[in-house]
């Protein structure tokens, strides 16, 4: 069932109903400022198991626990380091997730057996209202089937999960558009596990150097799904290119009679012959990283819906503000050799 809810004028009855579903062990899909989440009571292992079943998500992937405000973190985390306090003051509520040592109360299902828990205080008014009404920590991955594109509209959730959730709250499109930045503060040196709209530069200005995760060796299991090489993928084959020559090659490699090709363009003109010749649906993307992120999944969903076989994506700038976008595009385009 889908219920519309106006983020500017929240209907407390709808929120109360959704909160009750969560407290009763059900699944509620709800908007956050990043992407839609698929929520369940984080302290109820049976409810959390339903998330994994609905998403067909492997159990080695830990979930983020959502809280209404900073004062609730110590209900699930065992420590609140000074660096966490500094970051929370600047970025919460908002698109930053912190990984901290966990408390025993958090079921192993949530953390995939790790001794840490990921926590986030989201900013979206509907997420805020829901978390405050539910009065329980809410585990919520992105509300999509495993490996697929994250949803930035309720309709995206409905397309992949409608019959697998108890309730979908439709609060309109998500403002940030890509998943939160994930930073581990579990050890001495902070580690940036997943880039997002809160950039490494912004974090380092406040708490000093941040390390990158170690590349997993080929034969070791990858514990973080956001670190899987292929992830966040549309159904269409995603191919990155740089400049006109590579675009021509990409068109040549992917075109064919009756085959529809989409493209996300940044600098190339949609009217240039290279584009006009081979691309069925050229989309001109914004030059601002935040606006690009807001549009990214929405455009990939739309090109998938149109039936594109390939989506050619012009490579994005090599600046910290674009790290999250570049990361998602690389994973979406990764092909097993
Ligand atoms: O923006 C977001 O973060 C959205 C909204 C709904 O909040 N959620 C989201 O969840 O993207 P999900 O499950 O798709 O991604 C969770 C990420 C994964 O990369 C996972 O590996 C990491 O957080 N993560 C969760 N718990 C962790 C832990 N204890 N240690 C390391 N990484 C963890
Ligand atoms: Mg996800």
Secondary structure topology:
Elements: E1 2-4, H1 12-23, E2 28-31, E3 36-41, H2 45-55, E4 64-66, H3 82-91, E5 96-101, H4 108-111, E6 116-120, H5 125-134, E7 138-139, H6 154-161, E8 167-170, E9 181-184, E10 191-194, H7 200-207, E11 237-241, H8 243-254, E12 261-265, H9 273-278, E13 281-284, H10 289-305, E14 310-314, H11 323-333
Parallel strand pairs: 1-8, 2-8, 4-6, 5-9, 11-14, 12-13, 12-14
Antiparallel strand pairs: 2-3, 3-7, 4-7, 5-6, 9-10
Helix pairs in contact: 1-5
The structure holds threonylcarbamoyladenylate and magnesium ion.
Explain this structure to me?
- With 337 residues, the chain is an alpha/beta fold.
- It is 32% helix and 18% strand.
- The protein contains eleven helices and 14 strands.
- It has helices at 12-23, 45-55, 82-91, 108-111, 125-134, 154-161, 200-207, 243-254, 273-278, 289-305, 323-333, and strands spanning 2-4, 28-31, 36-41, 64-66, 96-101, 116-120, 138-139, 167-170, 181-184, 191-194, 237-241, 261-265, 281-284, 310-314.
- A ten-stranded mixed sheet has the order 1-8-2-3-7-4-6-5-9-10, with helices on both faces. A four-stranded parallel sheet has the order 11-14-12-13, sandwiched between helices.
- Strand 12, helix 9 and strand 13 (281-284) form a beta-alpha-beta unit.
- Helix 1 packs across helix 5 (125-134).
- It is globular, with a radius of gyration of 20 Å.
- The N and C termini lie far apart (41 Å).
- Bound molecules: threonylcarbamoyladenylate (TXA) and magnesium ion.
- Magnesium ion binds at residues 141-142, 150.
């Amino acid at each position: 069932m889908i219920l519309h809810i106006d983020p500017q004028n929240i209907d407390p009855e709808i929120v109360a109903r959704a909160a009750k579903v969560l407290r009763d062990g059900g699944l509620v899909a709800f908007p956050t400022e990043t992407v839609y989440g698929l929520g369940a009571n984080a302290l109820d292992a049976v409810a959390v198991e339903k998330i994994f079943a609905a998403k067909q998500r492997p159990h080695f992937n830990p979930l983020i626990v959502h809280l209404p405000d900073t004062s609730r973190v110590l209900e699930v985390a065992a420590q609140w380091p000074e660096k966490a306090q500094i970051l929370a003051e600047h970025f919460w509520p908002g698109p930053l997730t912190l990984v901290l040592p966990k408390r025993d109360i958090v079921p192993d299902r949530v953390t995939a057996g790790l001794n840490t828990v990921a926590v986030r205080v989201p900013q979206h008014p509907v997420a805020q209202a829901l978390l405050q009404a539910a009065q329980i920590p809410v585990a919520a991955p992105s509300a999509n089937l495993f490996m697929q594109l994250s949803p930035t509209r309720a309709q995206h959730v409905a397309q992949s999960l409608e019959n697998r959730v108890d309730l979908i709250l439709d609060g309109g499109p998500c403002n940030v558009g890509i998943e939160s930045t994930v930073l581990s503060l579990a050890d001495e040196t902070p580690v940036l596990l997943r880039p997002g709209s809160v950039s490494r530069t912004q974090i380092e200005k406040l708490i000093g150097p941040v390390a990158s995760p170690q590349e997993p060796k080929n034969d070791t299991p990858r514990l973080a799904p956001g670190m899987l090489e292929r992830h966040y993928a549309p159904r269409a084959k995603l191919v990155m290119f740089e400049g006109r020559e590579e675009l021509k090659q990409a068109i040549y490699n992917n075109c064919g009679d009756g085959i529809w090709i989409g493209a996300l363009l940044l600098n190339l003109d949609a009217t240039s012959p290279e584009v006009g010749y081979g691309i069925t649906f050229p989309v001109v993307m914004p030059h601002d990283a935040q606006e690009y992120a807001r549009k990214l999944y929405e455009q990939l969903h739309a090109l998938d819906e149109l039936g594109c076989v390939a989506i050619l994506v012009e490579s994005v700038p090599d600046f910290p503000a674009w790290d999250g976008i570049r990361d998602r595009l690389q994973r979406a385009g990764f092909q097993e050799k």
